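Shape is hard to put into words, and the shape of a protein is harder than most. The fold becomes a row of whole numbers, each drawn from a learned catalogue of backbone shapes. The outcome of that step, for a single protein, is printed below.
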Amino acid sequence: MLLTKKSEYALLSLISISKSNTPVNVDVLSKELDISKSFLAKIMQNLSKQDLVISHRGVNGGFVLKKPIDEITILEIVVAAEERNPMVFECSDSIQSCPNNKAKLCGIWPLLNNLQFKVNDFLDKLTLKDIAQ
């Protein structure tokens, strides 16, 4: 599940917004990126709720970044777009929250947990600036 279309579209949209000197509306983004307007609007709403973008209403309205591109992490974007933490595997993040109560017997949980930590750490160190160039 790590990165779905929601994450991809959120990243592409924020890159586009970061390159504009004026607010960019969903119509423009939708056409530019060839993404369904309604699907993109939901993604942008999630990004706005998580304070990654500011929405300006009106004729010249649209979205602008709330923070500089070097302060917005890829992890923040993915979490906002997906509305949950990214997961390498459908495995719980702690032994106590294992859905089938067999984590203590699971030989791969430590590996998966370590991998998840490394992925999250990598995404948290990577910023929008790193990929927008």
